[in-house]
Structures are given as structure tokens and as C-alpha cells.
Design goal:
single chain, 456 residues, Substrate Binding Domain Of Dnak, Chain:A, Domain 2, 2 domains, 76% helix, rod-shaped
């Protein structure tokens, strides 16, 4: 059992646990403060009693009762000094360390809330907000591309401003295809982010919180052990009482401290909606494959730019990850050495702030690892697509709609002269098609082959 495995959806329960523990620590602090106050007052009363007794007039003879009484007074004075010393030790030792523990525990709660919110916000942004924004833009660009296509067809039919309509159609389609690529990459990254969040980031934060909770429980145990040692008076009656207290303190087990809590707040894992490519976006598009990178004349340059940007971001992330991992390892080594050099049990309280800093650093490392995994998946997707097309030219994007003489592909002036009569015939045929749009598409292929027969 553990926080990361069993309490992934128990955020509110964990906050209640920390609030309850803080209230408990405040109660222990008030108890110790009253104990110090009462011990000081008791010691002051004992010393005052002995001073008043010594001011009485001495007797004229030496009595055995007087000797015994004198020893009683002397030992009582010694007891007063011991009690006063114990009160000072309690104040400067366990009580001071307990106040430090309370401050550290408050900071742990605050850091956990901040890191949890940061983690959830990042996950929600990548897996939901960004995707919804892209899907909305995707649908709008689909409509824009379809509108441009219809206007282009109308321009062809009317024979006016066909070039301008074709240009608008090209631009609208380029925007759609580039956004499609961006959406595919975002879906890929969101899938990895969701998996990293569910399998690594969130459990790692919870496991780190559990270790901090156990460390603070160990610190409280050490404080109470030191309290028992200082406050013990070694009388038969007090020994019995303090044995009971000590036995109770020894029952504290940091590793088993939260087992009952986990049992009480255990909840079944809620199935999370997986991130998938929304195929409904393609209902109004032409020949766009689902969840695949588009590589054509309109996207070739942008894909190269995307790959370069992804590589640069990946290199920066990996460099930062290496630095943070080194810092975390160094900090952990220093903490271990400090633990080995500790002179008192409660000295572990002094390391809690360093352990909290290590927790936050490890969280940063995990976040960077998630980012690295996401970027690697996107880079792999781009590399695979570009590698598969490295020996081929980008494919044309738009379906060929015959509306002009494609003389750009004919480089020889002599061939143009030889086929001038064919162009005249083709021009008259095109004029006829514009008057009858229904037959236009059916005749395009035949006319093209007739006007431009393959070279033999």
C-alpha cells in the first residue's frame, strides 16, 4: 500500500489528514508549553520553600531529627534545581524542535497543494484545453476550406477570377493541413502526457508526500522520545508513569503510521478518458488520413520547421533535466551524510526543510522527464514521416481541376508550336464545358490526354 498507488484521487482526504496532524501538533505544543511552565513553577516553589526553611532560627543543639530535616531540605533544593534544569532543557530542546516541525509541516502542506495544482493544471492544459482549442480551430478551417473550394468551382464555372479563387483555395487548404499536423502532434503529446501523469508524475508526487509525512512522523517520535528522557524524575511512581508514556511513544511507527488512513480513504481508480484523434473532424475534409502526419507541397516546409523546433526544445529539456538530476543527487547525498552525523534523535527535524527542497526538485525532474517523453514521441512521429518520404518529392495537395492550360510543364517552344492547334481545340472545348458545368469533370481527363499525349 502507498499514497501513489492507492490515493491518486484522494486529494481532499490528504488535505484533511494534514490539517488534522497540524491540529494534533499544536495540541502537543500547548501541552509541552504547560509542562515547562508547571515544572518551572514547581521548581520555583521548591527553591522558595528551602530558602524560607533556612531562614528559621537555628536550634541550640544538634538533633538527629534536625540532621534528617536538613538533608531533606538540601535534597529538596537539589530537586528544585534539577526540575528547573529539566524545564529549561524541555524549552530549548523538544519544545523548540516541535515549533520547527509545525512550521515545516505547514510548508509541506502548502507545497503539496501548489505542486498538485501545478500538475493538474499542466495535465488539463495539455490533454483538454489545448486540444479543444485546436479542434475548434480545425472545424473553422474545414469550413473555410470548403467555402474556398466552392467559390473556386463557381469561379471556374463562370470563367472569372479563377486564379484568385484558386489562390484562396490553396491558402485555406494549407492552413487546414498545417493545423491538422499540429493537432496530430498535440494529440500524440497529450497521450504521452496523460500516461506520464497517471503512471509517473501523480504517483511520484504522492509517494514523495508519503515519505515526507513519514519523516515528519519520525521527527515527532524523536521529539517525544527526548521529551520522555528529559521529563523523567526516576521515582518509582514517576518511572511507572513514564514507562507507560515511553511504551506509548515506542508504538509510533512511521512506516505503518498511515496504513489505517489509507484503508479508510482507499478508493477505486477512476477510468480516465483516453486521448484519441477526433475522427469527426475529417467528415468535411478531402482525403485527410486520421491521426497521420500530412506531407505534401503545402506542409513540407512547416514539417521541417516543426521538427527543428521540437529538436531544439528537446535538447534544452534534456540539458535542464541533466542539471536538475545532478542537483537532486547531490542534495540527497548531503542529507544522508547529515543524518549519519546527527548527535541527537530530534536533529532529524533540522533536515526536513532540506528534504522538502529535495521533494520539490524531484518533482521538477519528473516534470522534465514527462516533457522529454512527450517531445521524443513527437520527434519520433516527425522523423518517421520525413524518413519515409526522404527520396520522394512532396505530393500535390489539391485535386486537379482543369481550368487553365498547364503550359508551365512544357519547356520547349517548338513543341508548343506543334501543339497550337490542339490548344485551340481544347480552348473551345473548355468554353463549352463552362457553359455546361455538369460535363466539365467527366471530360477533363479525356481532353487532357488528347491535348498532351505521352511522348513515345
Amino acid at each position: 500500500m502507498g499514497f501513489g498507488r492507492d490515493l491518486t484521487n484522494s486529494y481532499e482526504g490528504l488535505l484533511k489528514l494534514q490539517d488534522w496532524e497540524l491540529k494534533l501538533l499544536e495540541m502537543v505544543k500547548r501541552f509541552m508549553t504547560l509542562r515547562v511552565k508547571s515544572d518551572k513553577e514547581y521548581a520555583a516553589l521548591l527553591l522558595s520553600m528551602t530558602q524560607q526553611t533556612e531562614k528559621q532560627e537555628p536550634v541550640d543543639f544538634v538533633s538527629t531529627v534536625s540532621k534528617s530535616w536538613s538533608q531533606v531540605v538540601h535534597q529538596t533544593e537539589a530537586l528544585g534545581r534539577i526540575m528547573r534544569g529539566h524545564a529549561d532543557d524541555l524549552n530549548s530542546g523538544p519544545l523548540h524542535r516541535l515549533a520547527t516541525l509545525i512550521r515545516d509541516k505547514q510548508q509541506v502542506k502548502k507545497s503539496y497543494q501548489s505542486l498538485h495544482q501545478q500538475l493538474e493544471s499542466q495535465n488539463h492544459k495539455i490533454t483538454k484545453t489545448e486540444l479543444e482549442k485546436l479542434k475548434s480551430t480545425y472545424r473553422q478551417l474545414c469550413r473555410d476550406a470548403n467555402n474556398a473550394k466552392e467559390k473556386y468551382r463557381e469561379a471556374l464555372a463562370k470563367g472569372r477570377e479563377a486564379e484568385r479563387a484558386r489562390d484562396r483555395y490553396d491558402k485555406a487548404t494549407a492552413k487546414l493541413h498545417n493545423l491538422h499536423n499540429q493537432y496530430v502532434l498535440t494529440v500524440c503529446g497529450a497521450q504521452i502526457q496523460q500516461d506520464e501523469h497517471r503512471r509517473h508524475a501523480a504517483p511520484a508526487l504522492l509517494d514523495a508526500l508519503q515519505r515526507m509525512q513519514e519523516d515528519m512522523t519520525l521527527a515527532l517520535k524523536s521529539i517525544l522520545e527526548e521529551y520522555c528522557e528529559i521529563s523523567s524524575l526516576l521515582t518509582e511512581e514517576m518511572v511507572k508513569v513514564h514507562q507507560e508514556i515511553s511504551a506509548a511513544v515506542q508504538q509510533i511507527d512511521p512506516l505503518a503510521e498511515y496504513q489505517q488512513f489509507i484503508e479508510a480513504y482507499r478508493c477505486p481508480e477512476t477510468p480516465e478518458a483516453s486521448v484519441e484523434f477526433d475522427a469527426t473532424l475529417l467528415e468535411e475534409t478531402d482525403n485527410i488520413p486520421a491521426n497521420e502526419i500530412l506531407w505534401n507541397t503545402l506542409t513540407a516546409d512547416s514539417l521541417q520547421a516543426m521538427l527543428s523546433s521540437t529538436k531544439a526544445e528537446l535538447v534544452l529539456t534534456q540539458e535542464n533535466l541533466k542539471i536538475k538530476e545532478g542537483l537532486a543527487d547531490d542534495m540527497e547525498s548531503k542529507i544522508q551524510k547529515s543524518q549519519q552525523r546527527a548527535e541527537r534523535k530530534s536533529d532529524c527535524v533540522l533536515l526536513l526543510s532540506q528534504k522538502l527542497a529535495l521533494l520539490e526538485l524531484r518533482h521538477t525532474v519528473q516534470s522534465l522527464r514527462s516533457s522529454e517523453a512527450r517531445l521524443l514521441s513527437q520527434k519520433s512521429l516527425l522523423d518517421a514521416k520525413l524518413a519515409s518520404t526522404v527520396a520522394a518529392a512532396p505530393l500535390p495537395v489539391l485535386p486537379v481541376l482543369q481550368y487553365e492550360d498547364d503550359t508551365r510543364s512544357i519547356g520547349s517552344t517548338d513543341k508548343m508550336k506543334e501543339k497550337s492547334s490542339r490548344f485551340d481545340t481544347l480552348r473551345h472545348s473548355l468554353a463549352g464545358m463552362m457553359r455546361s458545368p455538369k460535363a466539365m469533370l467527366d471530360r477533363c481527363t479525356v481532353l487532357t490526354h488528347w491535348a498532351f499525349p505521352p511522348d513515345t
